[in-house]
Amino acid sequence: QVQLVESGGGSVQPGGSLRLSCAASGRTFSSYTMGWFRQVPGKERMFVAAISGSSESTYYARSVKGRFTISRDNAKNTVALQMGSLKPEDTAVYYCAATFDDGLGSLVGRYDYWGQGTQVTVSS
């Protein structure tokens, strides 16, 4: 019912910035809570940020709070993750995800739809 496609990944130096975008299909996009997750080889997929359907609420992992900003444009069916002050430990494949459930849960299992992921590499 919902298709998600991430873009904007790439390589950046520590302290730099990068903006990820996720384009979604679906005529009821604004009804979905959207989230960003990240994963590195050998580790579990981890929550990064979430935003409610009409942007009333946002939630961030402690590790990125103050550095990353999640936003959405319901007219364009997109959600973005603006990443600043990037650190090597931010290196991961980043995924956007969607759920019709209310709330800003951080559990992978609460999200029903996932994009393919986009690689972010932070190195000097």
**Residues in helix, %:** under 10%
Number of helices: 0
Termini separation (Å)?
A: 41 Å
The 3D shape can be described as globular
- Contiguous low-pLDDT stretches (5 residues minimum) are none
Order of helices and strands: EEEEEEEEEEE
**Over all CA atoms, what is the radius of gyration?**
13 Å
Strand content: over 45%
Give the structural class: mainly beta
| Main sheet properties | 7 strands, mixed
By DSSP, the count of extended strands is: 11
Summary keywords:
124 residues; mainly beta; seven-stranded mixed sheet; four-stranded antiparallel sheet; globular
3D structure, described in words:
There is one protein chain. Helices cover 0% and strands 46% of the residues. With 124 residues, it is mainly β. Strands 2, 4, 5, 6, 9, 10 and 11 form a 7-stranded mixed sheet that branches. Strands 1-3-8-7 form a 4-stranded antiparallel sheet, with no helix packed on it. The chain is globular, with a radius of gyration of 13 Å.
Short description:
The chain is mainly β and 124 residues long.
